[in-house]
Design brief:
Layout: H1 2-18, H2 28-36, H3 38-41, E1 55-56, E2 63-64, H4 81-90, H5 105-108, H6 113-125, H7 148-156, H8 170-182, H9 186-189, E3 212-214, E4 217-219, H10 235-244, H11 255-262, H12 269-279, H13 296-301, H14 310-318, H15 320-323, H16 349-357, E5 363-364, E6 367-368, H17 382-394, H18 405-414
Antiparallel strand pairs: 1-2, 3-4, 5-6
Helix pairs in contact: 1-8, 2-6, 8-12, 10-12, 14-17, 16-18, 17-18
């Protein structure tokens, strides 16, 4: 009887992990597509949802997201469920060619059979077909040859679906399933190896979700690291951030804006709480010490000695009106700089990028953000931006490393002003 009870309990736990809880006005398949954020990568600015064409940079050259509407000639209209499954969880297209792992099939491999079937039903029966030819990648030959991806898969790809941890709660397992699989958080937030492989795919790897440089941003540490991670965030803090893109600690920026706009704001409170439960259980990836506010910076800004500090002067001229001299801002709408995890990231790329280029428009519940960070690439030179960034990273107890004009110049050349990408709020 004990064995039967144990097996029955395990099966119920697995079923609970895989069972989506969609809003009443959308199908289960659309809910899952939201959780997987398919629309963000498979839609170009101003284009039809899921019709592809978005240019994506890779270390080898640019590639273009494909049309995944059910058009029979240019999309996936002729895909069977098996074909769809192979593409989603194995990285193999209908004609047999292998997909570059920019398609997060290493994460999607964890999705359950039931959820794959629901996604297939959604794409085939709810998404409007759009005829739009796919664009060839710009990866030069012979680097564009795809058969070596079979070797890459042998070395780095685990095709097992998510298996519930019976020692953890139902909420923890549901959160792990969403974070590791559909949400594919590791695709951005986990460091990659020399072969562009994620160095860990779940909590068993110490570098899982430890933060990573990607696409000229630094995707923050999502572990319990105290300064640059989530060590000072509550479960409500994290769930609120995923729902609205802001909380008392920080505000979404860069590609995380698209995650909020197209994906996590649509998830149920139960699923957001489950994701927060899982993420806040991850041990600290970095021993970065405790953050403690230091009012020395405030004294500097209010002192005549500020004239001798280029970063302090520039901060007062360009930043103080929103983030104030205490560095605490007006959260959740104008974020603090004191104790803000991305300000203390080991890599300053995100802070440099957002000061250079500003932020894109965050849209939640159909309402555009009224408080948009402006860009300063035209009004400030590289040294001035380096001075401001260094001042922010060193101030108010942040105690992060200084930034050079050369680092700013590199990102100036590689990036463009934010705000040109139009979000897609509805997929149908």
């Amino acid at each position: 009887m004990k064995t039967a009870s144990f097996i029955g309990g395990a099966l119920c736990l697995i079923a609970a992990v895989a069972q989506a809880q969609p809003d009443t006005d959308i199908s289960r398949g659309e809910y899952l597509a939201r959780a997987a954020n398919c629309v963000a990568c498979h839609t170009k600015s101003g284009g039809a949802a899921l019709a592809g064409g978005l240019e994506m940079e890779t270390p080898l050259g640019n590639i273009y997201a494909t049309n995944i509407t059910p058009d029979n000639e240019t999309g996936i209209g002729t895909y069977t469920l098996e074909d769809f499954d192979n593409a989603m969880r194995q990285g193999i297209a209908q004609d047999g060619h292998r997909l570059y792992p920019a398609m997060p099939y290493p994460s999607y491999a964890k999705i359950s059979d039931e959820d794959i079937a629901a996604l297939y039903d959604y794409f085939m029966n709810e998404v409007p077909a759009v005829r739009l030819e796919n664009k060839e990648s710009e990866i030069p030959w012979p680097l564009s040859i795809r058969w070596p991806l079979a070797i890459w898969n042998v070395l780095f790809f685990d095709d097992e679906t998510y298996e519930a941890d019976e020692d953890q709660s139902e909420a923890w397992n549901r959160g792990a399933y969403l974070v590791q699989g559909l949400g594919h958080c590791g695709a951005c937030h986990t460091p990659r190896g020399l072969a562009w492989n994620e160095v860990a795919t779940d909590e068993s790897g110490p570098e899982y979700l430890a933060g990573a440089f990607l696409d000229n941003w630094y995707a923050s540490d999502l572990t319990q690291s105290n300064r640059a991670g989530l060590g000072r965030w509550s479960q409500d803090d994290l769930a609120t951030f995923m729902k609205t893109g802001r909380n008392m600690h920080s505000t979404a920026f860069g590609t995380m804006d698209e995650v909020i706009i197209n994906s996590t704001q649509y998830l149920t409170d139960d699923d957001l709480d489950a994701m927060a439960t899982y993420l806040l259980s991850l041990p600290a990836a970095h021993s970065d010490g405790e953050y403690k506010y230091d009012d020395t910076t405030l004294a500097t800004l209010r002192s005549p000695e500020r004239r001798n500090n280029s970063g302090a002067n520039l901060y007062m001229q360009n930043c103080e009106s929103c983030h104030v001299d205490t560095g605490i801002g007006y959260p959740p709408y104008l974020p603090p700089l004191a104790g803000n995890p991305p300000v203390m990231d080991p890599d300053p790329a995100s802070l440099i990028n957002i000061i250079l280029n500003g932020s894109s428009r965050l849209i939640v519940d159909g309402t555009p953000d009224a408080y948009r960070m402006p860009g300063y690439r035209k009004s400030l030179n590289d040294q001035q931006i380096a001075d401001i960034v260094t001042f922010m990273r060193e101030g108010w107890g942040n105690n992060a490393s200084e930034v050079t004009a050369e680092q700013v110049a590199d990102l100036r050349d590689l990036t463009e002003p934010a705000g040109d990408r139009m979000p897609v709020l509805r997929m149908k």
